[in-house]
Amino acid sequence: MRIQILISSVVALWLVMASSATAQRLVVVDETNQPDALVFADSDVVGRVSERSFLVSDDTRRIVIAPSVPGSWSILPLEYSLVGLPDTVSISAVFPFYYSVRSTPPGASVTVGGNGETLGFTPIVFSRRFPIRDSLHIALDGRLPVSLFPRDALWNPIDLELEPSSVIDRSFVARPPKRTKRWVDVAAMSLVALGGAAAVHYKFKADRRYRVYERTGDPDLRPGIKRLDVKSGVAVGVMQTGVAIIVIRLVRR
């Protein structure tokens, strides 16, 4: 009898371990240009892209990869759905290259040298799959044009002050330039980045608990879901405050 109990216990333990092992999915990052980016399984941080492979629960619905570049609030996270996929999934963590061009005064045309492609007018944010190897030309009537080669980083901000092309205009701007409050821009972009990350985090957690509530009908889950939704809303408010500050700063320049 004792031997039977021992055998039954061993078999039960093996089944539990086998069930635990099969209840996971392997996610492999096959290529990346941002190894420091954070990897989220639904709302949970599971590591950085540089780790390359991640074991996640088989009920994980999506993988989100968020960049960790300071001030890059325009860079959208990468999102992959795991619904209906096999136990081993390969994903790519290759972000587009983003460029922000701002000029004083605004309204300057931005073109790519060589092919003469017109991108738009300042202020402008655009992205490319590959880094721009050619020069950018920024031109505005009454101002001296500027040509430059942008960096090949993931986030490439360009801020220019276009000089007047006439003597009269030069005497007009001969006054000392106004001091810019760069720290305000940095603080505002930090609000956007932190608020956005917190909003995504709390929203993912709320969605995950709501799915559990839908399956179980447990009423004790509802207060927690409501609290997470409130926190997500507060984080969105913080992000919107940062965006509003950035917009106001752009308009006043």
Describe this structure in words.
This protein has 253 residues and is an alpha+beta fold. It folds into 3 domains: 2-93, no CATH class; 97-172, Immunoglobulin-like (Sandwich), CATH 2.60.40; 182-252. Helices cover 37% and strands 29% of the residues. The chain has 4 helices and 14 strands. It has helices spanning 2-22, 167-172, 182-216, 221-252, and strands at residues 24-32, 38-41, 44-48, 53-57, 62-66, 78-81, 88-93, 97-104, 109-112, 117-121, 124-128, 136-139, 146-148, 155-161. The strands form 4 sheets. It has a 4-stranded antiparallel sheet. Strands 10-9-12-13 form a 4-stranded antiparallel sheet, with no helix packed on it. Strands 4-1-7 form a 3-stranded mixed sheet. A hairpin with a 6-residue loop joins β12 and β13 (146-148). α3 packs antiparallel against α4. The N and C termini lie far apart (86 Å). The model is unreliable at 4-21 and 169-176 (pLDDT under 50).
The largest beta-sheet arranges its strands as 3-2-5-6
Q: What overall geometry do the principal axes of the alpha carbons give?
A: flat
Helical content stands at 25-40%
- Determine the oligomeric state from the structure: single chain
Put simply, the count of helices is 4
The largest β sheet comes out as: 4 strands, antiparallel
The fraction of residues in strands falls at: 25-35%
Radius of gyration: 26 Å
Order of helices and strands: HEEEEEEEEEEEEEEHHH
Report how far the terminal alpha carbons are from each other: 86 Å
Runs in which pLDDT lies below 50 for 5 or more consecutive residues are: 4-21, 169-176
**Structural class of the helices, strands and pairings?**
alpha+beta
Return the average pLDDT rounded to an integer: 78
Query: How many discrete structural domains?
Result: 3
Q: How many strands appear in the DSSP assignment? A: 14
